[in-house]
Amino acid sequence: MLIKTRLQLLFAFLVIVFLSTGGLMIGALQDLEIAVTEGSSGRLRLIQSGQIRDQILSASAEVEDLANWNAEDRSQFFGLLESCKETIQEMRLGLTGENDPLKGTIESLSRPVTDFGRAVTRALRYLDEEGPASRRLNLPRNWLKTRLIPEITESLQELEQQLQSRLAILDKLAVANYQRIKLVFLGTGLSLILLGIVFFYLVRRWIVTPLELLSAATREISSGKYGETISIASESEIGQLARDVESMSEEISRAQSQLVDRERLAAVGEMTATIAHNIRNPLGSIRALAQGRLRSEGGSDPDMSMKTILETVDRADRWLKDLLKGLKPIQLTYGEAQLDSRLPALCEAVSGYADKR
Questions:
Q1: Does the pTM of the predicted model rise above 0.70?
Q2: Are 175 and 28 members of one domain?
Q3: How many angstroms separate the Cα of 329 from the Cα of each of 51, 263, 264, 325?
Q4: How many CA atoms lie within 13 A of 108 on its CB side?
Q5: How do residues 228-263 score in pLDDT, each as one tens digit?
Q6: Quick check: 230 and 213 in contact, CB under 8 A?
Q7: Which residues, 6 or more positions from 105, have their beta carbon under 8 angstroms from its beta carbon?
Q8: How many domains does the chain have?
C-alpha cells in the first residue's frame, strides 16, 4: 500500500476519533447544562415556596384582627395575596409538560390562595354591611382555619417535597454528567497519547527507517560499493525508490566493470606494443651481432659476442616474464610495507608509459 494511502487512512481515523470524542463531550456538556439550569430553577422555586409560606402565615395572622382593619390593612393584605399569586405564576414558568406533577402541585396551591382571597373579601363585605358585630364574620374565619389554611399548608409541603426530590435527582444527574465529562476528557487525553505513540511508530516505520536505509545505501554507493541490496520490502513509494536505486547501482557496477575491461584491454595493447618493441630491440642486437660474427674474419672476440647475445636474450626473457605476470589476475592483500625499497622498481616499470604520455 502506498504511503499516501496509509497516511490518508490514518488521518481519517484520527478525524473520526476526534469527531466522536467531540460529540460525546458536547452531549455531556448539554446534559450538564440542562441539569444545572433545572437545578437552579428548582432551588429558585424552593425559595419562592418559602416566600409563599411566609406570606400566607403573615396574612393568616392579620385575619385574626379582621374586624379592626382599616383601608391600609386591607391594602396590605391584598398586596400579600397578589404577591403570592405573582410568585405562583413565576413558579409556573418553564413547566411545559402537561403531565408534570410539579405543575399540578403548583395549580393545587393556586386554588386555595385564590379562595383565601375570596373568603376574606366576603368577610370584609359582611363587615361593611353588618358591622363588627355580625355573626357571619366567624364563618369565613373558621373556614380559613379549618380548610383553606390546612389545604395551603399541605400543598406547600407537597410542593417542597417534590422540589427537594427533583433537586436530589438533578444533583445526581449533574454529578453523573460531571463524571462522564471527566471520563471523556481522561479518555481523550489517553487516546491522544496512545495515538501519538502509534503515529510516531507508524511514521518511523513507513518513512523514517526506510529513508535512513536508503540514505545509508546511497552513501555506500558514493563510496564505490555497488550492487548492495537495500532491505526495504515495502511496495510503497520509498520501496519503489529503493528498487530504482538498486537498479542504478547494478548498472553503475556493470558500467564500471566494462570500463575496467576496456582500460585493461587498452593497457594490454600498450603493453604488447612496448614488449614487442623491447623484444625487437634485443632481437635486432642479436641479429647484428650474428651478422657481424659471420662477416668478421676472426678479428672480434667470440666470447664477448656470445656474452652480449646471452645478456640480450635474458633481457628479452625478463620482459616476457613480466608480461605474463601482468596478464595474470591480480589479488590484492592489505598490509604494511616499506615503500622505500619498492618505489624505484615501480618507477622503472612505468617509466616507459610516463615518457609516452
A1: no
A2: yes
A3: 116, 15, 11, 9
A4: 16
A5: 666 666 666 667 777 777 777 777 777 777 777 777
A6: yes
A7: 155, 158, 159, 162
A8: 2
